[in-house]
Design a protein that fits this description.
6-stranded parallel sheet, Thiamin_PyroP_enz_cen_dom, TPP_enz, Thiamine pyrophosphate-binding protein, DHS-like_NAD/FAD-binding_dom, globular
Length: about 575
């Protein structure tokens, strides 16, 4: 082909983003506005944030929902260090993300130049790949490699730094941009056959669906595989939304979010088949203490995600192709009737226990507060069933992680923070999710007031971007999880406090930016408030419903806070 010359490096970057099919760019650019000048001439949505960390959170939410790369553009120096928490979350969440940053001129490195920082050293521990482009002719190859690495293997963030001296230089490429798309490797036939044989021998299998299976359940292949095995079907928190939660074999969320009577299945199972899960601590919390009791077959895309502390086996490849391969090899398999019946019975018992828990929890909530279980029930009734729920992970917010207090059914979606759980992720990520999902699909964020307070500086961003998200803010006066931990060591009161009853100020902020707002302190007022807020969101305006929550309204199965994880009630005797 005839060589193509772009007038500037930023023009080349804009053209490559167009080649990738990028429809949204998030960020807070530095002083160089050249990329925005190039994007002026495109139909790309640009979300200009007030804080780089939130920009990364939004791009991560976008990537989780869309299944394609989020793109973020920032300045240099403190812009990069501000962004590192967001990059950490993107890496932990395993999402494809391309971060482009300014870099100090080559001839000024080491001179104490304005905002000079060894950015590659700072960011390398957080990304799959990082590079700095000091010469214009190297930019096309760097852009193509960044895109390929972001989406292939175990997806993750990549970093490209553009040295200031080449920003305005022309960039020539001698060929078309390379096609970019994730390659989904098939599993090794021998590994597939060996693991299929172990699965066939299991009498009481559980199927655990992790975040690596997201967007890989075409045709409900995972549910059909569970039926073939008669396996109980659990999700990790990050894998939630992959399978239908109204399926009769679905048992809820694993680990930290599994409560009686469903936890008994983990003590009875003889095999776990983990699809796309790193078996992180939250996902395996409460499993049998003797690791030798419960073998695991792990199916993951990247070998770096393998966990070898438990007996079992593994197979590497695309989760969807692995499931299809197993299903073909096990086509004649017939499970015994006893285990599927046991799973269904546990599911029915869980539904009854959940109703009892909600009733018990409501008794701990005094006047001027609303039981969180009532909030979730009212939200379920107010918003269409295909909604995507975006979550934080605090004290009262944890209620929504517990099935069936919140159920996605067969059409709902879910986006949650990774095991890093950076405060404010869910509130910001909801903006990216909204831009990734079809226009008519509802996006709801359930967040604590501590997390929402960190995000409130982006309310003008929400207004400027014209996104419509329903925020349900559970207000317990601050950081409820920290307060409950403090109360354990200072039961008679402390001179320190993480929560205080005080006005939040959210009403004034939402009014200033033309957003909807309601505050609810009475459960009877909640249905009307949520219905009104949803009407505003459906009409195209973000709305915030602030709900007074009680510190004593603790999530299911939790007897007390205990550092990182709650103390759990003792297992029920069978």
């Amino acid at each position: 082909m005839t060589p193509t010359t772009h007038p500037t490096a930023w023009a080349a970057i804009a053209d490559h983003l167009h080649h990738l099919g990028t429809d949204v760019v998030f960020g807070l650019p530095g002083d160089d506005m050249a990329l925005l000048g190039e994007l002026e001439r495109s139909d790309t949505t640009v979300v200009l944030c007030r804080d780089q960390r939130n920009a990364l959170f939004m791009a991560t939410g976008y990537a989780l929902a869309a299944g394609r790369p989020g793109v973020c553009v920032i300045g240099k120096g403190p812009a990069l260090t501000n962004a590192l928490t967001g990059v950490l979350e993107a890496r932990s969440a395993g999402v494809p993300l391309i971060l482009i940053a300014d870099g100090t001129r080559l001839d000024r490195l080491g001179t104490g130049a304005f905002q000079e920082l060894d950015q590659l050293t700072a960011i390398r521990p957080y990304v799959k790949w990082a590079t700095r482009v000091d010469h214009a002719e190297r930019l096309p190859g760097a852009l193509e490699k960044a895109a390929a690495l972001a989406v292939n293997g175990a997806p993750g963030p990549v970093y490209l730094e553009l040295a200031e001296q080449i920003a305005a230089e022309p960039v020539t490429r001698g060929r078309p941009w390379r096609p970019v798309g994730p390659q989904r490797p098939s599993p090794d036939p021998d590994a597939l056959a060996a693991t299929a044989a172990r699965i066939a021998a299991a009498e009481r299998p559980l199927l655990l669906v992790g975040g690596g299976a997201r967007h890989r359940n075409t045709g409900r292949r995972i549910e059909r595989f569970a039926e073939l095995l008669g396996a109980g079907l659990f999700s990790t928190a990050s894998g939630r939304g992959t399978v239908a939660e109204d399926h009769p074999l679905h048992c809820g969320v694993s680990g930290l979010y599994t409560v009686a009577p469903m936890d008994a299945l983990w003590r009875e199972a003889d095999l776990v088949i983990a699809l796309g899960s790193r078996l992180e601590e939250t996902a395996t919390f409460g499993w049998p203490e003797d690791a030798g009791q419960l073998p695991v077959i792990q199916a993951v895309l990247g070998e770096e995600n393998l966990v070898m502390e438990r007996p079992g086996d593994h197979v590497l490849g695309d989760a969807g192709r692995i499931v299809d391969g197993w299903a073909e090899l096990l086509a004649g398999h017939r499970p015994a009737d006893a285990w599927p019946a046991r799973v269904r019975a546990a599911r029915a018992a869980l539904a009854q226990r959940a109703a009892d828990r909600a009733e018990e929890a409501a008794k701990t909530v005094g006047e001027g507060a609303v039981p969180v279980a009532r909030v979730l029930d009212a939200l379920d009734r107010a918003v269409p069933a295909d909604r995507v729920l975006v979550q934080e992970n605090g004290l009262q917010d944890m209620w929504s992680y517990f099935f069936p207090h919140w159920s996605l059914g067969s059409g709902g979606g879910s986006v949650v923070p990774s095991e890093q759980t950076p405060l404010g992720f869910g509130a910001a990520a909801a903006v990216g999710v909204r831009l990734a999902e079809p226009a008519g699909r509802p996006v709801v964020a359930v967040v604590g007031d501590g997390a929402f307070n960190l995000f409130r500086g982006e309310l003008p961003t929400v207004a400027d971007a014209g996104v419509a998200v329903l925020y349900v803010v559970l207000d317990n006066g601050g950081y409820g999880w920290l307060q409950s931990n403090l109360d354990r060591v200072s039961p008679d009161g402390s001179r320190f406090a993480f929560t205080r009853p005080r006005p939040t100020g959210t009403e004034g902020l939402t009014a200033a930016y033309g957003l909807g707002y309601r505050r609810v302190t009475d459960a009877d007022e909640l249905p009307a408030a949520l219905a009104d807020a949803w009407r505003q969101v459906a009409a195209g305006t973000t709305a915030v419903v602030e709900v007074a929550a009680a510190l004593a309204d603790t999530p299911p199965g939790m007897t007390a806070s205990a550092g990182d994880f709650p103390e759990r009630e003792a297992p029920q005797e069978e």
